[in-house]
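S., here's the first fold you wanted:
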Amino acid sequence: MKLEPFLLEILVCPECRAPLAEGGTEEQPELRCTGDSCGLAYPVRDGIPVLLVDEARRPA
């Protein structure tokens, strides 16, 4: 998964408002919060980021 750079510039974590970074695997892409206190990972389904806190994976 490769999002357009301008999207990564404007997308933020809905929980803490920190910037998001691409992560995950090819099979399970995700956007990870870069905030130190948050760290949520949001799934990307069919190329569309699902920015819902209830759908996010908590850090281990």
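And the second, which I think is the more interesting of the pair:
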Amino acid sequence: MAETLSMTPADRARVAAAVTAAEANTSGEIVTILAAGSDDYRDVALAWAALAGLLALVAMALLPDVYLGLYDRITGAWAQDWAPGRLFGVAALVAALKFAGTWLLLLWRPLRLALTPGPVRQRRVHARALAAFRIGAERRTTGRTGILIYLSLAEHRAEIIADESIAEQVPADVWGQALSAMLVEIRAGRMADGLIAAVEQVGQVLAAHFPRAADDRNELPDRLIEV
């Protein structure tokens, strides 16, 4: 899967049509959200920069002669005894340079994402998906039968979150098949097909548990929401 995957107007229309078709047989309401990313992870960059500064101080403590000799060569100073104040000043300078250098490197988002632990990315995606669900689907239907399909490109992760009426009847692990079907297509570069595959499988599950009533009406938008 690649963050550079994009959706054309025709792709968006296909996803919306798939949602409409899936909802034709169920009282459930499917919401699809496509996010470029779920977090900027600047706190992770800050943590790595702080660690780099700390490690620099540890290295100076373990190998003081190496660092102080290097400082003398760079500045052209004669070998000398180091006063405590000057020694601490050099240590602070080295730590600050390491911190700043690491922070600047991690301003490049792909590197920042690569250095973000998988569990952290997973938690951030879930939190963003949950927030989107609460805004866009939770308890917004008459029978509380809304369900969110959320895809976050930067993290290469997806979530399916169901409203309480669905969650009471359908175990959460059932949605794993829909997620797998979606990710297979997306890894092949077919993002619209992946979303459609997930919508179709979710629609089949909903139709089995929540068949469409004669007076059912469309309560949530069928279009793909991009954030």
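Why I say that: The chain has a mean pLDDT of 86. DSSP finds nine helices and four strands in the chain.

Talk tomorrow,
H.
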